[in-house]
Design goal:
- The complex is a heterodimer.
- In chain A, about 30% of the residues lie in helices and about 20% in strands.
- Chain A is of the alpha+beta class.
- The longest helix of chain A is centred in the N-terminal third of the chain and has 22 residues.
- Chain A starts with a helix and ends with a strand.
- Chain B has two domains: about 70 residues, no CATH class; about 230 residues, MetI-like (MetI-like fold, Orthogonal Bundle).
- Chain B has twelve helices and no strands.
- In chain B, helix 6 packs across helix 8.
- Classes of the chains: A alpha+beta, B mainly alpha.
- At the A-B interface, helix 6 and helix 12 of A face helix 2, helix 3, helix 5, helix 7 and helix 11 of B.
Chain lengths: ~525, ~325
C-alpha cells in the first residue's frame, strides 16, 4: 500500500491534463497550417504490416485506418467498420463496413480489401513476407466477404483477442490498398503507402524529413484540420528540446527527460504525460545456474533491490518503481510492491539458503545497452545495491546489435536490463514471454507460463482475459521469471498554440484532430 | 603532371579494395547483424531466417564481399537493408551538404588561423601572441559537441539570430543555406583552427629567422611584403599537409556535428548505418569518405607545386 500515492499522483496529473485540454476544446478548431514535428529517428518505410520500428508504427497511424480503433481511455470504437456482431458463441464476427470510403489511390475500400489485408498480415498472401503482427492473428481461421461491405471472421475457437488485434496490438489491423500492393510489389510498397487515413504520404528524404499532406476526401467529416505535417528528424534530445523552445518546431514526440523540468516552467510549452506504458525489465537468464533457482532470483530482484531509489535517481523523477512485468498504463496491470519488500537481511538469508555467503559470494554480469540512457544508470544502481548484500555484479554496456544478438539468439547473459516499447495489455507481451517461439527474453522453460499464455490467447471474454492477464503477472513476479525495475514515461511536448491533440500514452501518435491556434 | 595524376588515380584502386575489405570483415565478424537490429524484441527465428536468406547473410564473408565488389564494379552500390532504397542515390543526395560543410570549415580554419598564426609569430611574446595562444588552447580543448550545444543555445535560443537545426539546400536559398550552416561550421572548425594556428606560428617563427628573409629585408622590401610574400609561402607547406590530413578528421567530426544540428549529411548517414549494421550503407559511407579523403590529398599535392616550384613529382629519379 506504500506506493498507492504514486498512482494517486499520476491520476491527479491526468486530471489536470484533461481539464486543461477540456478548456481548450471549447474553442472552435481552425483548419489549415503546417505542423512541424521534431521526430527522434528515421522510419524504415511506411508499410503497416512489415515496416519495423516505433517511428514507422506511429506514422502509419496517420495514413491508414483499421476496422476498429482505440479512444483515449483505451476503449474499442468503430472506425472503418460501422458495427460488428458475434455469432456461434463468439466463433464468428461479422463486421459491417463503412461505405463510400476511398484509399489514397482512389480505389474503393471494401470487403475484398479486408480479406487481402488479412491474408497479407498473416503471411498467407506471400510466405516470403515478414508481417510482424501475424502471431496476434493465430486465433483466426479465415476471413470471408459476405457482400461488398460485410465481412466475416471465423475463429478457431472463441477468443477475446480479435478486437484488440484489430485495434491496437502493434499498429492494429490497418487497411492498405490492394491495388497499391499490386502496382508497386512487396519490395516498393513501403515507399508508396496508400491507406484511407487523414493524411497522405507526400515525401520522405532519408534522415531528413517526412512530409504528409491532408487527405481532402477523409471519411470523418471536417477532419483533419492540418494541411500538412512535417516530421523533421532530430536524433539528439537536446536539439529537439532547443528547437521547440526556439519555436523552430511545434511538437516533440519523444521529449528528453533531462529537459522536462525546464519546459514545465515555460508557459508557452505544454508537456504531455499520462500513465506510463513502457518499462525497464530486468529478467535473469532463467536456465543458467544459479538463476534457475527461484530463491536466488527472489533474493536479488525481490528483497535485494530498492526500486523506489532506482526510479528516483535514474529517471530524474519522471518514472515510477515497478514490480510487475506489465507497466501501469497497460490494461489489467497489477503490481506487487509488498510481496518481497526491500530487505537486505532477508535477501542475504535467502542467498545463504541457496548456498551463497561471504565465503562463497555470488558473482555475475548484468548486460545492457545505451540506446536508452537510463539503462546503464539503472544497471549501475542495481550493482551498488546488491554490493550491500555481498553480491559482486559487473555491468556490461554493449552496442545494441551485439546486445540483441545475445539476448534473442545466443542467450549469453546472466541478467539483462532492457527497455520495452509501449505495452497495451499482458497478451501484447506474449511475444517475448513464450518459451516456444519469439524472443523469450527471460530464457525460461516454464510450461506454466506457456500454458497461461495459451489460455490468455483463447480467453473467450474480456473478464476472463483480464483475470488471466493478472494471474500471469502474478505468476511471473512470484517466481521472479519476468519483472521490472521501473516504468518509463512517454513525454511529449508542444507549443501552446497546438490544440486538439489527443495523447495516447505512446500507443499511437495521431494528428487527425490536431489544429493550430495561431 | 598528367602521368602523375594517372598514377595517383590508379593507386586509389588497391587502397579502396583494402579499406572496404577490412571494414567488411570487421563488420561481419562483430556479433549482431542487421536482422537483430531490425527485429529487436520482435525477434522471431522464422522471420529472421527469411531475412538472412534474402540478404545473403548466411554466405561466408569472402563470398558476400565478392558479391558486393562485383556489383560495385558494375556501378551498383546495393540497396539499404532498412529503407530498401539504392545506397548510391541516398549518398548522392547527402553528399553536397557534407562537402559544403567541410569546405566551409576549411575556409573558416584558413581565414582564422593564417592571420592569427602570422601575427603571433611576427609579434612573439606580446599580448597578441598570448591572446591567440590562449584561444587556441581553449579551442583545442573544448569538445565539438559541447561547443555546438553552447553555440545553438547562445545564438539560436537566447539571441535568436541563427537557426538551431536543419538545413536548406543551396539551390533553394543561398542566404538561408548559409544561416543554417554557420554554427555547425564553427563547431566543426574550431578545434582544427586552433591546431593550425599553433602550427603556422611555429613554422613562421622558424622561417622568418632564415637568411633569405633577412636578404629580403636588407634589400629594402617593406615588412608586409617580406612576411606575406616571402616568408608565409614557405611557412605554409607544413600547414597544407596538415590541412589535407584534417579533411579526414572533418569527415569524422561531421558525424557528431551533423547529428547534433540535425543535418542530413553523410556523417549522420554513416553513424546510422553503423549502429544499424546496414552493410551496404556502411560500405557506401566508407567508400565515399575514402574518396573525399584521397581527393583532398591529391589537392594538397597540387598546392605543393604552387607553393614551392622546386617540388616536381615523378622526376626525382631522372
Amino acid at each position: 500500500m506504500r506506493y498507492r500515492w504514486y498512482l494517486g499522483l499520476l491520476s491527479g496529473m491526468m486530471a489536470v491534463l484533461l481539464v486543461t485540454s477540456g478548456g481548450l476544446w471549447a474553442q472552435q478548431p481552425k483548419s489549415g497550417g503546417t505542423l512541424r514535428i521534431a521526430w527522434e529517428a528515421d522510419i524504415t518505410g511506411l508499410d503497416p504490416h512489415t515496416s519495423a520500428g516505433l517511428q514507422a508504427q506511429w506514422m502509419v497511424g496517420n495514413i491508414f485506418n483499421s476496422l476498429v480503433t482505440i479512444d483515449e481511455q483505451l476503449n474499442f470504437v468503430p472506425e472503418l467498420a460501422e458495427s460488428w456482431d458475434t455469432k456461434d458463441d463468439g466463433k464468428t464476427y461479422i463486421f459491417r463496413l463503412r461505405k463510400g470510403v476511398k484509399f489514397h489511390d482512389d480505389t474503393d475500400f471494401d470487403a475484398e480489401a479486408v480479406k487481402f489485408n488479412f491474408l497479407r498480415i498473416t503471411a498467407r498472401l506471400d510466405p516470403e513476407e515478414k508481417p510482424f503482427a501475424a502471431p496476434f492473428f493465430t486465433a483466426v481461421e479465415s476471413v470471408e466477404p459476405i457482400d461488398s461491405h460485410t465481412v466475416q471472421f471465423h475463429l478457431k475457437s472463441p477468443s477475446y483477442t480479435l478486437i484488440p488485434a484489430l485495434g491496437v496490438y502493434r499498429v492494429g489491423f490497418l487497411q492498405m490498398s490492394p491495388t497499391s500492393y499490386k502496382t508497386y510489389g512487396k519490395k516498393e510498397v513501403h515507399l508508396h503507402p496508400a491507406g484511407t487515413g487523414p493524411f497522405k504520404f507526400a515525401r520522405w528524404e532519408q534522415n531528413n524529413i517526412i512530409v504528409l499532406e491532408k487527405n481532402p476526401n477523409y471519411f470523418k467529416p471536417g477532419l483533419p484540420y492540418l494541411d500538412r505535417i512535417e516530421f523533421k528528424i532530430m536524433k539528439e534530445g537536446v536539439t529537439r528540446a532547443t528547437a521547440l523552445r526556439a519555436g523552430e518546431v511545434d511538437f516533440v514526440t519523444v521529449f528528453p527527460r533531462e529537459h522536462a523540468d525546464r519546459v514545465a516552467k515555460d508557459p508557452k510549452i505544454r508537456l504531455y504525460r499520462g500513465l506510463d506504458t513502457a518499462h525497464v525489465f530486468i529478467p535473469f537468464n532463467n536456465q543458467r545456474k544459479p538463476f534457475d533457482d527461484a530463491r536466488v532470483r527472489i533474493a536479488l530482484m525481490g528483497y535485494g533491490i530498492d526500486r523506489a531509489a532506482i526510479a528516483k535517481t535514474a529517471l530524474l523523477g519522471y518514472g515510477n518503481p515497478l514490480w510487475s512485468g506489465i507497466p501501469p498504463g497497460a490494461k489489467d496491470h497489477v503490481d506487487f510492491p509488498e510481496m518481497y519488500p526491500y530487505n537486505p537481511e532477508k535477501a542475504k538469508a535467502l542467498l545463504k539458503e541457496a548456498g551463497f555467503d561471504e565465503n562463497n559470494p555470488l558473482k555475475y554480469t548484468i548486460m545492457t545497452h545505451g540506446a536508452e540512457p537510463a539503462l546503464p544508470t539503472i544497471a549501475t544502481i542495481i550493482k551498488t545495491q546488491l554490493a550491500k548484500i555481498g553480491v559482486d555484479v559487473t555491468v556490461e554496456v554493449l552496442d545494441r546489435p551485439i546486445f540483441l544478438r545475445r539476448l534473442t539468439t545466443t542467450k549469453e547473459y546472466d541478467q539483462v536490463v532492457n527497455f520495452s516499447s509501449h505495452i497495451v495489455d499482458p497478451f501484447a507481451r506474449s511475444f517475448v514471454l513464450d518459451s516456444r517461439q519469439g524472443a523469450n527474453v527471460a530464457n525460461h522453460k516454464d510450461p506454466q507460463v506457456d500454458e497461461l499464455l495459451d489460455r490468455l490467447a483463447l480467453a473467450p471474454t474480456a473478464e476472463e482475459f483480464s483475470r488471466l492477464g493478472k494471474e500471469l503477472q502474478e505468476y511471473l513476479y512470484k517466481n521472479m521469471i519476468y519483472m521490472s525495475a521501473t516504468s518509463l514515461p512517454s513525454l511529449q511536448a508542444a507549443r501552446d498554440y497546438v490544440q486538439g491533440y489527443v495523447y495516447e500514452r505512446g500507443f499511437k501518435v495521431r494528428f487527425e484532430t490536431t489544429w493550430l491556434n495561431k | 603532371m598528367r602521368e602523375y595524376l594517372i598514377k595517383r588515380l590508379f593507386l586509389m584502386i588497391p587502397t579502396f579494395i583494402g579499406i572496404t575489405l577490412v571494414v567488411y570483415s570487421v563488420l561481419l565478424m562483430l556479433p549482431g547483424d542487421p536482422v537483430d537490429v531490425l527485429l529487436g524484441q520482435e525477434y522471431d527465428e522464422q522471420i529472421a531466417a527469411k531475412l538472412r536468406a534474402e540478404w545473403g547473410l548466411d554466405d561466408p564473408i569472402i563470398v558476400q564481399y565478392g558479391k558486393w565488389l562485383w556489383h560495385i564494379v558494375q556501378g551498383d552500390w546495393g540497396r539499404s537493408m532498412f529503407s530498401r532504397k539504392p545506397v548510391f542515390d541516398e549518398i548522392l543526395a547527402k553528399l553536397p551538404l557534407t562537402l559544403q560543410l567541410i569546405a566551409m570549415a576549411l575556409f573558416f580554419e584558413i581565414i582564422v588561423s593564417v592571420p592569427a598564426g602570422v601575427i603571433s609569430a611576427v609579434k612573439p611574446y606580446t599580448w597578441w601572441d598570448y591572446g591567440a595562444s590562449t584561444l587556441a588552447l581553449i579551442g583545442v580543448s573544448i569538445p565539438s559537441f559541447f561547443l555546438g550545444i553552447l553555440l545553438f543555445l547562445t545564438f539560436g535560443l537566447w539571441l535568436g539570430w541563427l537557426p538551431v537545426q536543419g538545413y536548406v539546400p543551396l539551390s533553394e536559398s543561398i542566404s538561408a543555406n548559409l544561416r543554417h550552416l554557420i554554427l555547425p561550421t564553427i563547431a566543426l572548425g574550431v578545434a582544427r583552427t586552433a591546431i593550425l594556428t599553433r602550427l603556422i606560428r611555429g613554422s613562421m617563427l622558424e622561417v622568418i629567422r632564415q637568411e633569405y628573409v633577412m636578404t629580403a629585408r636588407s634589400k629594402g622590401l617593406a615588412e608586409g611584403i617580406v612576411i606575406n610574400k616571402h616568408a608565409l609561402k614557405n611557412a605554409l607547406i607544413p600547414a597544407v599537409t596538415v590541412l589535407g590530413l584534417q579533411v579526414g578528421f572533418l569527415v569524422g567530426g561531421a558525424i557528431i556535428i551533423e547529428k547534433l544540428f540535425a543535418l542530413p549529411g553523410i556523417g549522420s548517414y554513416g553513424i546510422d548505418a553503423i549502429t544499424n549494421r546496414d552493410y551496404p550503407q556502411v560500405l557506401g559511407f566508407i567508400l565515399i569518405s575514402a574518396l573525399v579523403f584521397q581527393f583532398a590529398n591529391l589537392c594538397v599535392d597540387f598546392v605543393y607545386c604552387f607553393l614551392d616550384p622546386r617540388i616536381r613529382y615523378g622526376k626525382a629519379e631522372a
